[in-house]
Known about the structure:
elongated, two-stranded antiparallel ribbon, alpha+beta
Amino acid sequence: xxxxxxxxxxxLQKNKRFSQLKNSQKDWIVTELYKLYHDKMRKIRTTRxxxxxxxxxxxxxxx
Length: 63
């Protein structure tokens, strides 16, 4: 039970891979990452790839 948590009286597995998720879950993650990434790009005012430090902040915001 170390990889499970209880949410709304249901068990939730925490250690799933992206490929194991349902399509609706994948879509939600992709859209959230897209929004956060582009918001960060607008904030920095760049059209190039974000630096590793900025990418880490975007990824940690989703978790």
